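Anyone have tokens for Cbb3-type cytochrome oxidase assembly protein CcoS? Sequence:
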Amino acid sequence: MNVLLVLIPVTGLVVLIAVALFFWAANHQQFDDLDSPAVLPLMEDETVPGPAADTAPAPSLSPDSKGDTP
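Reply: yep, here.
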């Protein structure tokens, strides 16, 4: 029976902490958007077109050649 003298106040303290955390989360807009985070992993990313793999880069001119052909 002496255990109840400890467990009842500890349980009450845990409940008070849980209620305080719930109201803190509600006041800090933690429950505003519950649907979007669940859908974000399922959405496809838009692909960005990159350079084609079969095209070679244009040769760059060296600063001393100045476009002259040998």
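The chain has a mean pLDDT of 80.
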